[in-house]
Structures are given as structure tokens and as C-alpha cells.
User: Which sequence fits this backbone?
């Protein structure tokens, strides 16, 4: 979801995505991009330049998913404190055994 969201504003190079999504390792970012490309959600364009340049962009299918992700992000933001209260309550009860 983070990669799809990061590509919402348009094409991005790998290094841009790596900077935009700091909570992901480079290996996981690479694997995620490959999976999204395989699923038809992201296009990868390699340019024959020195140094090589690769850009990623959402496909039509990926853009369609972006809409759903934005709704999920809005819901998450709206209900964050309520979810956090439930987590805290659960954790307190779980520790009591």
C-alpha cells in the first residue's frame, strides 16, 4: 500500500521510493516492486543511460487500487485513536493473564 501511495503523484525512481518509504528495507522494496509489476499494478521502465535509470509508475489497475487505498487511509486516520484504545485495553488484559 505504501508503494502504491508513493506513486500517486506520478512516476518515481527507485531512489525516490526508497527515500519516500523509509520504513522499508531495500530488499523488501525491490521484492514489493517486482510483485506489483507481476500483478499488473506497476509499470517498470528502464532507460539505456549511464548511469542506468529506472522509473516506476502506476498502471490503470494500480490507479484504481489507489482509490481504495486512499479510502482505507482516511478511515485509519479517522479511527486511529479508537483502535489505539482497544489495543491498549487488550494489552492490559492480556498482561493480567
Assistant:
Amino acid at each position: 500500500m505504501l508503494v502504491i501511495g508513493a506513486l500517486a503523484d506520478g512516476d518515481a525512481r527507485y531512489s525516490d521510493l526508497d527515500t519516500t518509504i523509509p520504513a522499508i528495507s531495500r530488499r523488501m522494496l525491490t521484492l514489493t516492486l517486482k510483485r506489483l509489476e507481476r500483478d499488473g499494478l506497476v509499470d517498470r521502465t528502464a532507460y539505456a543511460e549511464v548511469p542506468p535509470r529506472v522509473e516506476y509508475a502506476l498502471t490503470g489497475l494500480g490507479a484504481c487500487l489507489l482509490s481504495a487505498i486512499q479510502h482505507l487511509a482516511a478511515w485509519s486516520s479517522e479511527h486511529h485513536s479508537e483502535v489505539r484504545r482497544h489495543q491498549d485495553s487488550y494489552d492490559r488484559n492480556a498482561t493480567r493473564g
About this structure: The chain has four helices and three strands. The chain has a mean pLDDT of 93. Helices lie at 2-6, 14-20, 26-38, 60-96.
